[in-house]
Design brief:
Radius of gyration of chain A: 18 Å
Largest interface: A-B, 64 and 46 residues
Number of strands of chain B: 5
Number of strands of chain A: 0
Distance between the termini of chain B: 56 Å
Strand order of the largest sheet of chain B: 1-2-5
Largest sheet of chain B: 3 strands, antiparallel
Shape of chain A: globular
Structural class of chain B: alpha+beta
Order of helices and strands of chain A: HHHHHHHH
Oligomer: heterodimer
Helix content of chain A: 55-70%
Radius of gyration of chain B: 22 Å
Distance between the termini of chain A: 21 Å
Structural class of chain A: mainly alpha
Largest sheet of chain A: none
Number of helices of chain A: 8
């Protein structure tokens, strides 16, 4: 992985991925904590900015890897509120006020949640965050071949779980189409 | 169709998130600017060659456990610290260290210590060279390990008590305190208060001391 840190590269990478990181964090810890988690990610990334990959997709994966570590640390320690994020929290709250709440996909999310934690996060990274199987595997610290195997098993389990839903008997065992 | 349908279901199952309005986008940029301008600039880690034991003096007992668990134990550290700085241990673990609890009998000396740390540029203080020099100094002084029964045996690099993270932590503190001593001397306040004390608490979640 080529590394060639420059401050402008770093700020561009953060600006380019901030909204996606915010969405990722919001989906994992909820809207209330997402702003503070994002601040943690930005600070942690800044401290390791000299490791920022040059390639845009690699830098996105790198930032999500940091975000994943921040979430793991948040789970182990007390949440803290940053004064720095007060305005962002307020702005997010206002933005949510105008949005229409939707619970579409609740049963699918439940099915995902019943997978093993590794499989579930793999599926979320691929389908919610838009990563390839290999990239999601790299974020999770597993080889692409392992990620593919886990993803294939996860799909099989999901297909079975979701086929049992009322009014949905269309799922069969077609091969994986994602790469 | 079935596979596509599963993909569609999974894609659409993402919980709804806050819309990125122009206001949110502005705040994200502001947060990025704030987090990257108020923190110390990144510095490449130069792994020290040796390790020691002296950091136990700084974070002994419960404080060491708290530092490794990511908690603040000293009351002032929770919400009344004078200063805070960050560094990375040889193991890659991130530390935040806070300074406070300055006390003594000479108000001018207390004020000088507090002013120094309040205005300190820790990034300029904690250079790789300065930390390495502090590590070298520790090496020259050897080290003593105190057993549970109070007996003292050789400690530090080359012994079973070797711990690179502890040595680095101790070296960082040495640099930070030495700089303050130098500043006090520059103001003619060195040694004027033999009760002058300073507290510091490191917070290094995950560290094994």
């Amino acid at each position: 992985m080529s590394r060639n840190y420059a401050p402008t590269d770093f700020t561009r990478a953060l600006d380019r991925n901030a909204a996606d990181l915010l969405a990722y964090l919001e989906r994992r810890v909820g809207a209330e904590d997402a702003a503070d988690a994002l601040a943690e990610v930005m600070v942690a990334a800044w401290r390791h900015a000299d490791a920022l990959p040059v390639d845009a997709e690699q830098s996105r994966m790198w930032l999500f890897g940091i975000a994943r570590n921040v979430l793991a640390n948040m789970a182990r320690s007390e949440r803290r509120r940053w004064r720095l994020t007060e305005r962002l929290r307020a702005t997010l709250s206002n933005a949510r006020a105008g949005a229409v709440p939707a619970d579409e996909g609740l049963d699918v999310r439940d099915a995902i949640a019943r997978l093993s934690p590794e499989q579930a996060e793999l599926v979320r990274l691929i389908h919610w965050e838009g990563f390839t199987i290999a990239a999601a595997g790299e974020i999770l610290g597993v080889p692409a071949s392992t990620a593919r195997t886990r993803y294939e098993r996860a799909r099989a389990e999901l297909r079975e779980a979701l086929a049992a839903r009322p009014n949905d008997h269309t799922l069969t065992t077609n091969p994986i189409t994602r790469h | 169709m079935a596979s596509d349908h599963l993909d569609e279901l999974l894609d659409r199952s993402a919980p709804q998130t806050t819309p990125i309005t122009p206001g949110v986008a502005d705040e994200l940029k502001r947060l990025r600017a704030a987090t990257t301008s108020t923190m110390r600039p990144p510095r490449r880690w130069a792994r020290p060659v040796v390790a020691g034991f002296a950091a136990l003096l700084l974070v002994g007992g419960a404080a060491a456990a708290a530092a490794a668990a990511g908690m603040w134990t000293l009351p002032w550290a929770q919400d009344d610290a004078i200063a805070s700085f960050h560094y990375t241990l040889p193991s890659g673990i991130e530390c935040e260290q806070r300074i406070g609890g300055v006390s003594g009998t000479v108000p001018a000396a207390i004020a000088a210590v507090e002013d120094f740390y309040r205005d300190a540029d820790f990034a300029a203080l904690l250079t790789d060279d300065a930390i390495q020099a502090a590590i070298d100094k520790q090496r020259q002084g050897g080290g003593i390990h105190v057993n549970d029964d109070g007996s003292r045996v050789p400690g530090g690099y080359g012994t079973e008590f070797y711990n690179a993270d502890r040595e680095y932590l101790s070296a960082v503190w040495d640099v930070v305190v030495t700089a303050m001593d130098t500043d006090l001397a520059r103001h003619g306040l060195a040694g004027v208060d033999n009760k002058l004390t300073l507290q510091s608490e490191p917070n290094c979640p995950g560290a094994a001391w």
